[in-house]
Amino acid sequence: MKKAIVIGSGFSSLSAACYLAQSGFEVEIFEKNSTVGGRARQLVKDGFTFDIGPSWYWMPDIFDKFFADFGKKTSDYYQLDKLNPAYKIFFDDDTITIGDCMDSICDEFERIESGSSKHLRNFIGQAQENYDIAINKVVLRPGLSPFELVTKETILKVDQFFKTISQEVRKRFKNPKLVSTLEFPVLFLGAKPSNTPSFYNFMNFADFGLGTWHPKGGMYEIIKAMKSLAEELGVIIHTNSPATNILVSDGQVLGIRSNGKNHIADYVISGADYHHSETLLDKKYRQYSESYWNKRTYAPSSLLFYIGFDKKLQNIEHHNLFFDTDFEVHAQEIYDEPKWPSDPLFYVNFPSKTDASMAIDGQETGFFLVPIAPGLEDTPELREQYFDIVIDRFERLTDQQIKKSIIFKESFCVNDFVEQYNSYKGNAYGMANTLKQTAFLRPNLKSSKVKNLFFTGQLTVPGPGVPPSLISGKLVADLITKTINK
Ligand SMILES: Cc1cc2nc3c(=O)[nH]c(=O)nc-3n(C[C@H](O)[C@H](O)[C@H](O)COP(=O)(O)OP(=O)(O)OC[C@H]3O[C@@H](n4cnc5c(N)ncnc54)[C@H](O)[C@@H]3O)c2cc1C
Question: pTM (2 decimals)?
Answer without folding.
Answer: 0.97
